[in-house]
């Protein structure tokens, strides 16, 4: 049995049968990466999850990669499901979202390839982009009338999806049709869905082990013992030798073992035989620098996990490290990099001089936990989305132009 905390007023217990219980009051913590969750090294052992009454938010990356998970019980106190919360739970076949939930985050259930049934209640207001991407066993889904915003490619890669029932709203059809062949069936009036909530039982506290107490006394003062002099020797520790460690499992590349991942050309990339298949990259804790163009040839990359130890990311280290408007040469007008914790937003050298250099969408959100400051090159115009993101980051980020 293992236990700990996962929020200011939340605790977790994982028993010997693979039952993970989250209890207490308030929000779960939003984790920066899968490896930051307190049960990360036990993910393959988790079979059932119970989120008890009082929990209000399921945190970002909370249960990502729990590949043995087959049942989830969520109490009706939960109002939001964070980004990537249940992503890659490949054994999960069905889940009932309680009527209290108002928002489902980006990729919250992506790559749940066994998921055949999910009920979205008629209180959900927003569904993030790619929320159900690659749920290849889903056949039918209904978007409730309460939904006001829905992200792009929300059902991309759902190859078995036959029908999507959705409220007739501007922009919905575009996002719902991306990446699947489902028949879109719009409706105009409220379509209320009230799921049947499963009973939630609070776990009984584990019995406390008996505490042994050592008792002792000294009848007479002991005689002093002269220490035996030890030979003095000087020891010079050997510097640790770094060795690149990597593996490809399915479509996931995991890289670590070094403080700096250097830039590779296509011919010398160690994982070059899998470049066309890699869709997910996990950088292990301890890596501090990712050189420019290090993973530029991973052209199908969709998901990235970067630990807080990374302070520097070079230009174009990943294929999607861009922001701003597209140009005719296929690139984008604005690029970004991370230099010792400072987000550098720069003009793309390949862009035309008369291009519109606006920041656009913040693709750097994947490393926002590593960002301590922002520096914007002269001539770049920050968009409203940039300032929205900056306000969420708080006062701890310094911006300079």
In short:
With about 400 residues, this protein is mostly beta strands.
What does this structure look like?
The chain is mostly beta strands. It has two domains: 2-187, Alpha-Beta Horseshoe (Leucine-rich repeat, LRR (right-handed beta-alpha superhelix)); 245-400, no CATH class. 4% of the residues lie in helices and 27% in strands. The chain contains two helices and 28 strands. It has a six-stranded parallel β-sheet with strand order 4-6-8-10-12-14. The longest helix has 10 residues, at 384-393. The chain is globular and about 50 Å long. It starts with a strand and ends with a strand. Mean pLDDT is 82; it is low at 191-197 and 233-237.
Task: Give the key terms.
401 residues, Leucine-rich repeat, LRR (right-handed beta-alpha superhelix), 2 domains, six-stranded parallel β-sheet, 2 helices, 28 strands, 4% helix, globular
What does the largest sheet look like? 6 strands, parallel
**Which structural category do the helix and sheet elements fall into?**
mainly beta
Residues in helix, %: under 10%
Termini, distance in Å? 52 Å
Mean pLDDT: 82
Task: Return residue spans where pLDDT drops below 50 for at least 5 consecutive residues.
Answer: 191-197, 233-237
- The total of beta strands comes to 28
Percentage of β-strand residues: 25-35%
Question: What is the succession of H and E elements?
Answer: EEEEEEEEEEEEEEEHEEEEEEEEEEEEHE
CATH arch. level architecture of the largest domain: Alpha-Beta Horseshoe
Strand order of the largest sheet: 4-6-8-10-12-14
| CATH level 4 superfamily of the largest domain | Ribonuclease Inhibitor
Integer count of domains = 2
Which overall shape is indicated by the principal axes computed on the Cα atoms? globular
CATH C-level class of the largest domain is Alpha Beta
């Amino acid at each position: 049995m293992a236990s700990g905390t996962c929020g200011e007023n939340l605790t977790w217990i994982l028993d010997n049968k693979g039952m993970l219980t989250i209890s207490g009051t308030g929000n779960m913590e939003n984790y920066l990466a899968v490896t930051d969750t307190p049960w990360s090294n036990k993910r393959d052992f988790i079979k059932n999850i119970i989120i008890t009454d009082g929990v209000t938010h399921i945190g970002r990356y909370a249960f990502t990669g729990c590949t043995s998970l087959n049942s989830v019980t969520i109490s009706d106190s939960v109002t939001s499901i964070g980004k990537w919360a249940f992503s890659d739970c490949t054994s999960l076949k069905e889940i009932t979202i309680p009527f209290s939930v108002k928002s489902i985050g980006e990729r919250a259930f992506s790559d749940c390839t066994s998921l055949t049934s999910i009920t979205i209640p008629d209180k959900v207001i927003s569904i993030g982009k790619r929320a159900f991407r690659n749920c290849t066993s889903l056949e039918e889904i209904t978007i409730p009338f309460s939904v006001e915003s829905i992200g792009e490619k929300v059902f991309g890669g759902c190859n078995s999806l036959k029908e999507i029932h959705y409220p007739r709203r501007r922009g919905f059809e575009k996002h719902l049709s991306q990446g699947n062949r489902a028949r879109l069936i719009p409706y105009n009036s409220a379509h209320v869905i009230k799921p049947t909530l499963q009973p939630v039982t609070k776990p009984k506290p584990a019995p406390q082990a008996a505490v042994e107490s050592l008792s002792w006394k000294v009848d007479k003062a002991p005689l002093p013992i002269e220490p035996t002099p030890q030979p003095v020797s000087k020891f010079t520790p050997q510097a640790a030798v770094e060795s690149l460690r990597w593996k490809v499992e399915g479509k996931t590349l995991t890289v670590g073992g070094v403080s700096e991942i250097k830039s590779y050309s296509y011919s010398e990339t160690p994982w070059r035989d899998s470049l066309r298949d890699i869709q997910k990259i996990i950088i292990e804790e301890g890596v501090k620098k990712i050189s420019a163009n290090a993973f530029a040839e991973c052209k199908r990359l969709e998901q990235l996990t970067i630990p807080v130890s990374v302070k520097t990311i070079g230009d174009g280290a990943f294929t999607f490290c861009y922001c701003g408007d597209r140009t005719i040469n296929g690139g984008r007008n604005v690029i970004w990099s991370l230099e010792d914790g400072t987000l550098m937003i720069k003009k793309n050298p390949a862009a035309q001089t008369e291009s519109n250099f606006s920041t656009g969408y913040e693709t750097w959100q994947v490393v926002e936990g590593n960002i301590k400051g922002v520096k914007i090159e002269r001539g770049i115009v920050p968009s409203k989305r940039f300032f929205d993101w900056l306000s969420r980051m708080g006062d701890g980020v310094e911006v300079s132009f």
